[in-house]
């Protein structure tokens, strides 16, 4: 038996109460927060992966360039005339530090830059090349390559071209090997001023914006010295 509503009466079963609305909003905010957190985690992972790949690409490219040129290091040419010697800078490796456990080594050597290695080159295009880590103009640690093809003697030259390879470099450590043992610097002694090492071990450390560090290490044998196996 159906009952008719009295005129002016209110149907309390229609619509939502304030508590129900608040509960619905809370659940919606909770689900949206979870979805946003998941999306943010995925985006952060993609960004870290991209930075890691870029760090790897830059590190491998820089290490390969250094290895190619150091492996092609040449002894100083003999001076024509009565002296039989030369004052052109030979292979030199210096140990430098920028704090506990941080190496900022420097290596200077003579070579024909690899970009010109496939074309005939006059003898005067033998160049002095140096690799080292130092602060750039922005105060950041960076890997530099310095080249001087002027043929002048001395450690520094006005004509030297300085190129910043990457501002992600925080360390560069070099170890030099002769036929018997390893050395932190080269020449190993004063009697070996004009000699080249047999091999050089390169350890380049890079750090990205997320403070993630990665080291790239290789050992290169100098072509003109071979493996120096006695």
Structure described in brief:
It contains one helix and nine strands, in the order αβββββββββ. It has one helix spanning 18-71, and strands at 92-94, 106-111, 127-135, 141-148, 161-166, 169-177, 182-183, 199-207, 213-221.
Task: Please give a structural write-up.
The protein is α+β, with helices and mostly antiparallel strands and 230 residues long. The chain has one domain (52-76, 85-221). 23% of the residues lie in helices and 27% in strands. The chain has one helix spanning 18-71; strands at 92-94, 106-111, 127-135, 141-148, 161-166, 169-177, 182-183, 199-207, 213-221. The strands form 2 sheets. The chain has a 5-stranded antiparallel sheet, with helices on one face. Strand 6 (169-177) and strand 7 (182-183) form a beta hairpin. The radius of gyration is 32 Å and the shape is elongated.
Descriptors:
single chain; 230 residues; alpha+beta; 5-stranded antiparallel β-sheet; 1 helix; 9 strands
